[in-house]
Amino acid sequence: MSDERTQQMPTLEKESTTGGGGNDLEQATSAAAYDPGGPREAGGRAGRFWSLRRVPAGIVALLLLAAAGLLLYDVAAVRAGEPAMAWRRTLADELATTAVNDTKILAAASLVTLLGVWLISLAVTPGKRGLLQMRREHAVVRAGLERSAAGLVLRDRAMQVSGVQSVRVAVGRRKVRAHARAHFRDLHEVRGDLDSALGDGIRQLGLARQPGLSVHVRRPKKG
Q1: What confidence score (pLDDT) does residue 19 get?
Q2: 214 lies in which domain range?
């Protein structure tokens, strides 16, 4: 008696949809043939790259410097016997006569609050979402890979699969999404080859956190 073994196959979905022109489009979709698990990093945890935030920090610093310089000049002028600037007298009168629940006061407070929340979010978030962390083989070396560059590498790999006419690859922080058009061969065979090619490509990118993979294959629309 032969030894029969059961092997779980990737999930396949074959759909027939009707486009606007009445053409039937075959589609094959899969997200199960690729395991994003990878080896642990030998050189330690690869954390996110933090943005220096030069532009927001520079703008805030310039505004504070200009405001402080203007106020200091006015205070020095008053100490020297000159009258205070008109803007400071007007501001003092407005603050003395305007109620706390006035619309202008509430609008100004809301604007300052939003500005403060924005600055705090910039301070506590790393930024640089377009840069993917690579595995740390050595503790003193950190490397990153642009998402756009990773997308080009994976797109070139996908175009080498037989039957693929065109493909779009979008690399996110958590998942790689590939949308391909196959002009010959069975869609499931093309999808399986794309799963294998893109899965190997993702592993060879050397990312610290390997993203998941979603592959969609369909026939091109008939003219």
Answers
A1: 43
A2: 13-32+131-218
